[in-house]
Amino acid sequence: MPEPGEARAAAAPPAADTRAPRPSHLDANLVGLRTLIRREIARILRIWTQTLIPPAITMTLYFVIFGKLIGSRIGSIEGGFTYMQYIVPGLVMMSIITNSYANITSSFFGLKFSHAVEEMLVSPMSNWVILSGYVVGAVVRGLAVGVIVLGIALFFTSLDIQHPFITFASVLLGAIIFSLAGFINAVYATKFDDIALVPTFILTPLTYLGGVFYSIHMLGEPWQAISRANPILYMVNAFRYGVLGITDVNVPIAFAVMLGFVVVLWIVALHLLRRGVGLRS
Amino acid sequence: MTATPALVVDNLRKTYSNGVEALKGISLTVQQGDFFALLGPNGAGKSTLIGILSSLVNASSGDAQVFGVSVQRERSAAMRLIGLVPQEVNFNQFESLFDICVNEAGFYGIPRKLAVKRAEKYLRELRLWDKARMPSRELSGGMKRRLMIARAMMSEPKLLILDEPTAGVDIEIRRSMWEFVSAINQAGTTVILTTHYLEEAEKLCRNIAIIDYGTIIENTSMHRLLAKLDKETFVLDVAAMPEVLPTLDGVVLRRRDEQTLEAEMSRAHDLNSMFAELTAGGIMVTSMRNKTNRLEELFMRLVEDQRQKAA
Fold it and tell me: What is the pLDDT of residues A99-130, one digit of tens each?
């Protein structure tokens, strides 16, 4: 035990990691990114009964009730597809965006609420690494749920994917957009109610009015025009075009809208992290 | 050639959005290899200062440099040099101890292979290895504090900041934590400690700053600070209490109970003459101890003086 006394000033050598050289800033950031992604995926798998099973059950009910029971009475809706075939892309996209959103809000806000987010905030990791790590984790959950729901859909109907690249690109962009939106929600949230408000009052209505269950051509004006202001309409229709080859919107415009949302939300989320809004005093 | 100080705080100010002025332009320097105590009453500004050093709090003005790297301007580079053991438990309570340590290393850019080795090393040193795979929420309070030290050591920082690391910890664990941190310091890591256990600060630290109302009211070596203590009070256990207490030269003697006396004297007064006079008065002393910790007496006096000045 050292005795009280004068400082040893420069006499003591500084602690050094002799077993590993200091990595470059980029290398260190990439290790940080891998760590965050690994941690997020471990979380999804650790609580798989909360993250992967509920959407599978919910969507099975949708397929049974809307697809089989009601859908069989509706018959063909557009392009010669059955109602079941028509709603599958919308329901898959709905699962992806709601689960991406839910993953990032619950994970990031949970850490913020318990102050465990400070582990990352006091580390040398750059803000883009923290944001990317959480977005990748949320996208992984969204895509995993999408694959599960698509697999279940195949028990009820057959699908022949028309444009695989457009299919993949649309789900990826949809998942990224709602991951970023969820991150912004979690940054501003101060209590658990705050992360439930947006899905309940904004996300769910927009999803149901985003052409999941119907074509907007079935709507009269001004509802068609109003529907075109709903970003989810573009995601659902881009994905439906990829799977079935039919769409209510112009596909390049749909991708431009999605890319625009990604860029704007990314900039906003990064700005909030840089300013420390809701995270630093 | 003079080595770059481990920490230079230059005229640091922080005013929160609610108008509270937590730091009023404080400046201090901590040399490399030092074991430095940062003391102050609750709400004095210690946690705000540590928050700024660890980038959790944005300074209103001024600068802090860690080994010459500005926390404000080169945050990432500065954070690479600092390890923080916070006052409140702030790890993910659903993760295992092992995962918490390995993930922490990952956040500092340490490759997983090396992180796994370090996690074992520090969890063993802090006597937590047998619980490495257990969810951290199942740990006792003392174990959680040790886990936060192990986590902070994963990046093997050059500056370790401990914010009340032993609060609510039993004496045995506290002593083992002192030993660990002392060894880390002996190996060259600069340590800054805040604590309300002044005995801890007196035992461990070589230099000290006392902060109150957002200003530094004392910044000196522990040795010089303790030398300022002009009076000391001892508690004497006696074999038998006399009817009338003798009058001693330079010592104020008070009866505390039937077996105990208090003797207040100047630090310059020698103890031998007091014992000689007590023996002559028929008082047999069986044991003796300080009434309060020496640093505690000084701390209370300095804070009280500061508050009287402020009033």
Answer: 999 999 999 999 999 899 999 999 999 999 99
If asked whether residues B11 and B143 sit together in one domain, one would say: no
Q: Give me the residue from B91, B112, B204 closest to A119, CB to CB.
A: B91
CATH of the domain at B209: 3.40.50.300
Question: Is residue B300 situated within a structural domain?
Answer: no
Asked if B213 has any chain A CB less than 8 Å from its own CB, the reply is: no
Put simply, the answer to whether A281 touches B206 (Cβ < 8 Å) is no
Q: How many structural domains comprise chain B?
A: 3
The answer, for B121 touching chain A at a CB cutoff of 8 Å, is: no
ipTM of this complex > 0.85? no
Which residue pairs, CB below 8 angstroms and at least 24 apart, start in A51-58? Answer: A51/A99, A51/A103, A51/A141, A51/A145, A52/A141, A52/A144, A52/A145, A52/A148, A55/A95, A55/A98, A55/A99, A55/A145, A55/A148, A55/A149, A56/A145, A56/A148, A56/A149, A56/A152, A58/A95
Distance from CA of A149 to the nearest CA of B (A): 28
B33–A14 C-beta distance less than 8 A? yes
Query: In B, residues 58-77, which contact A (CB 8 Å cutoff)?
Result: 58, 67, 75-77
- What is the spatial distance between Cα B30 and Cα A28, in angstroms, rounded to a whole number? 28
Q: Which of B150, B171, B190 is the last residue of a domain?
A: B150
B307 assigned to some structural domain: no
Instruction: Give the residue from chain B lying closest to A18, CA to CA.
Output: B156
pLDDT tens digits, residue range B30-47?
A: 999 999 999 888 888 999
Same structural domain, B68 and B176: yes
| Chain A residues within an 8 Å CB radius of B89 | 115
- B90 in reach of chain A (CB within 8 A): yes
Boundaries of every domain in chain A: 38-71+78-275
In A25-124, which ranges are E strands?
A: 76-78, 81-82
Q: Is B235 found in the same domain as B217?
A: no
Q: Which of A77-81, A93-97, A239-243 has the lowest mean pLDDT?
A: A77-81
Q: Name which of B50, B107, B116, B205 to mutate to probe chain A: the one with the most chain A Cβ atoms within 10 A of its Cβ.
A: B107
Q: Is residue B308 part of a domain?
A: no
